[in-house]
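User: Run a structure prediction on this.
Assistant: Running it now.
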Amino acid sequence: MILYNVTVGVDKEIEHEWLDWMKGEHIPDVMKTGMFYDSKMYKVLGHDDPKTTSYSIQYFADSIGKVEEYLNEYAPGLIREHQAKYRDRHVAFRTLLEEIP
């Protein structure tokens, strides 16, 4: 199992709008690619910045090949859409992890 994790720090002023958009549009669009079999979203606790809230969005794939296909074929457009909608109101970083049996 491969985990593609996206951690996003979002300005508190737009947090609720961003959450609605993520849950209603962005995450469903990522899942529609067919590259992931599940997703989860977590709020990062213990975050000390009073101006932002951080979230971890996790996408689960069966293989590294599916993640690579997602990153090459689908991610650029979805990332551009997110950046255009929330320019200068968020920061994001991505991590790829492999489950150790």
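Residues 64-85 form the longest helix (22 residues).
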